[in-house]
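Customer escalation, tier 2.

The customer says the design service returned an amino acid string that "doesn't look like it belongs to this structure." They asked us to rerun it and document both sides in this ticket. The original structure tokens are below, unchanged.
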């Protein structure tokens, strides 16, 4: 024996029938906050901002490497 029941109702009516809360407002607020955080994260991944952050450290490291090589070459001449 097979019984099937079709219920035609809106999501709001189904929530009310089962006693579930309407969380649309909370979902909208969380979605807005998540979009803001993702936008801020994308701004941090801007190539120009990344270069400004990394370049000084890279140049400092390169200068230290040059000084190390020059110090090693200076020792070999003596």
């Amino acid at each position: 024996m097979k019984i099937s029941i079709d219920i035609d109702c809106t999501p709001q009516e189904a929530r009310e029938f089962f006693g579930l809360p309407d969380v649309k407002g909370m979902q909208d607020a969380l979605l807005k906050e998540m979009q803001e955080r993702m936008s801020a994260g994308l701004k941090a991944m801007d190539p120009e901002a990344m270069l400004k952050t990394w370049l000084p450290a890279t140049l400092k490291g390169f200068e230290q490497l040059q000084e190390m090589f020059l110090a090693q070459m200076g020792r070999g001449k003596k």
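Tier 2 assessment: The sequence is consistent with the input. The chain has two domains: 10-45, 46-78. The mean pLDDT is 83. Sent an explanation to the customer and offered a walkthrough call.
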